[in-house]
Amino acid sequence: MTTNDKPTRKPGEDNLSREAWKVFRMMAEFVEGYERLAAIRPAVSIFGSSRALPGDPHYALAEQIGRALSDAGFSVITGGGPGIMEAANRGAYAGKSLSVGLNIQLPHEQNTNAYQHISLSFRHFFVRKVMFVKYASAYVVLPGGFGTLDELSEILTLTQTGKTPRIPILLVGREFWSGLGNWIQARLVGEHMIEQNDMELFKLADRPEDVVNAIVQHYDTRSFEPSDRERQSLLEL
Questions:
Q1: Which domain holds residue 171?
Q2: Is 62 exposed, middle or buried (0-12, 13-18, 19+ CB in 10 A)?
Q3: Does the reported pTM lie above 0.85?
Q4: Number of structural domains found in the chain
Q5: Cα(213)–Cα(217) distance, rounded to whole angstroms?
Q6: For residue 119, what are the contacts with CB-CB under 8 A and spacing of at least 6?
Q7: Would the pLDDT of 131 be above 90?
Q8: Phi, psi of 102 (to 5 degrees)
Q9: Residue 194 lies in a domain
Q10: Residue 64 is part of a domain; what is its CATH number?
């Protein structure tokens, strides 16, 4: 090879190099998340539509739930964006505990809401999802679209398979969620896709006090801190 010759790169080497550097970016996101969120327990992750506007009944209910949980001593974790996320953060921000936003960088930029004591920004959805699960003592799911259904499905799967502790999963809004519950019972249970006792993984609720009471009652007989076995499962997410 002469001094003017350039090293020959094999097909795909550039892509491989970029993929390798992505691993380090993911690691950095995990490390920052762990460092910033380690002290927020007990916490509740709240999911719901980004399209609900102030004045919408779902927005008002999410704000009330965020405030009730915050005043009861729970940090509130949301996706950090508009809609129900904003409402829940807003309620928590006005309360006694921390309001946390796990924001995601999207091609059409998600607007970060202004009601966050702790605000993190993620490039990778799966890293963000781990943070939602790892520090939550309960999950509260308000009406939402595909993103909300994605989070709900993943939480139910992780709980069903024992990858996360058995903690409250509360679907808020019976009128909105009862059709899904009926379909799960008729189709998934009826056709033996899941077991009948899997229906006990989630409960329906309507009022902020119902949400808080369900979570508090769950922890009447156990600690908010995961057991050694549960902590090991969380390490393997």
A1: 21-177+206-235
A2: buried
A3: yes
A4: 1
A5: 6
A6: 80, 100, 101, 103, 112
A7: yes
A8: -105, 90
A9: no
A10: 3.40.50.450
